[in-house]
Amino acid sequence: MDLIGAAVTEFTREAQQQLRDPSNFSWTTVTLIALVSYVYSVEVERRNYSAILAGLSLWLMDWINEVANALVLHFTDRAAIWTATGDTSYQLLIGLNLEISLMFLVAGIVFVKSLPPDPKQKLLGLPNRAVFVLGFSVFSVAVEELLHTTGYFDWEYWWWNSYSPPLIVLFGYATFYAVAAWVYDMTDRSRQIKVVAALAAIDIALIGVFGFLLGWV
What are the sequence ranges of the domains in the chain? Predict the structure, then answer.
């Protein structure tokens, strides 16, 4: 018996079976892409480039996390930190499907458009950006909890599950929203573009090395 294969969890096997399988394609994907495109086109029309760049920065941050998550599966031969299962039109990585990725493309714009105009304004005596980052992060983890109860989102390790939400809040979402707020509040457009370009370069390097070159993700 293959001891390494035997250690792999059942939900991991389920996700691996549909990993980058084009036969799962659904026409609903076309509608989702159109809706995401509409969200961005509205911001382009309004010349709200800070929101666009903030949205892209959150999405690119998620890709860094997703590659790292896939590497955990590679090195443990058991499970990633989180695993996405269930019906999807395309499973991009072990913990990321196309629907989740499109959601993150919009999430950053939703977040920054919810922020108070003045970054220095206090809420409950605290910096409003910190309050919104925490609030959106907690809400996002609550959604993950719901997905987990439905069996479409799986956690394996004791330090990253329903009993240890602070880690998920901090490293699963707060970093995303914090970077989006940081980029959004920058007054220098060239600096915003440089940050987004740097994140994109990191993603390309990670996927190129660990995906195409080594085949680990």
Answer: 3-213
